[in-house]
Model the fold of this input.
Amino acid sequence: MTGTSHEELFGAAPEGLWAAPGRVNLIGEHTDYNEGFVMPLALPHTTRALVSRRRDRTLRLRSRNAGGGTVTVPLDGLAPGAVEGWAAYPAGVAWALLEDGHEIGGADISFDSDVPTGAGLSSSAALEVVTALALSDLGGLDLAPETVARLSQRAENDFVGMPCGILDQMASACCTAGHVLYLDTRDLTRRQVPFAMALEGMRLLVVDTRVKHAHADGAYARRRAECEAGAAALGVPYLRDVPFEKLDAALARLDRTVQEAVRRRVRHVVTEDRRVERVIELLDAGRARDIGPVLTEGHASLRDDFEVSSPELDLVVEASVAAGALGARMTGGGFGGSAVVLVDDAAAEAVGAAVLEAFDAAGHGAPRVFEAIPSAGAQRLPL
Ligand code: GLA
Done:
């Protein structure tokens, strides 16, 4: 994106350029709103924002990807419901900053993104985080990355109306190149775990099924409510508080008190937290190859116990493992979207081809396959 286009659009040269990435999650799915563990990595795909300050208290927003002209947002009196469509994400971030007591002024922002949308790769979080970081830097707020993430999540929860956890925003704000981010969503303590080197001789592929099932947001909210019901029935604040060693006893207790579906949601969350721990132990021990089966086990749990997979995602996992992948699982919220596949370099081509063939045979449209290179989190870039 060049400065000229921003200047043409808004009549002022941009003062700065910011970028925030999309992500995949290696393991730890639907654990974040249960205060559990996650392990995302940032993709090289980013949303970029060119920004110039305005003298008045207005935001003017423009997206190359969404098209549709400039959206004008008055900062004073800004409230949920005031802005619809893609611009609700950046407007929501401005609202969250103001609600949190930060001084921000008007700005013209032009966005440009190569994060695939509707693919479960966190294009929404990238848009939020790039806006939060840009407004923070321009306003001299000097917000910490976790504050950028929290305000972005607040924008999505309370302004856009999607009850997501903090996985995507923390990934976009805090990941570093070459690493996966091992994050405790309870208190946001985290560790950058070397991953690019761990992958020596292997690749992590992303398979975007290009299918997004309708009603995914409603189903997400229901899963969240079921987890809360499970925690309440067990008398704990969050499912994170059920230790893996006490899972059988907890499930036995739930037998008599809650619906079968809630029991299975509990089993997914508690075993998933345990799988994150196993992956971290293996990575720390230099045994990255051995995480494959843990990923595939995680997929089965999301498919059978949490019921958030889709026929296309199941097919990616089945076809890639049958063709020699070390492991595979859906990534992100589910109900369509993308899967990650861990493969030996030598098998990568054959596995990719097998997935394409399986999709063709099943009558699905061709998925998009690319490599997940662990990349940098949100940052200001030179103009
Ligand atoms: C979506 C949400 C995240 C997280 C994942 C599932 O990506 O935005 O907060 O809950 O689903 O792990």
The two ends are 10 Å apart (CA to CA).
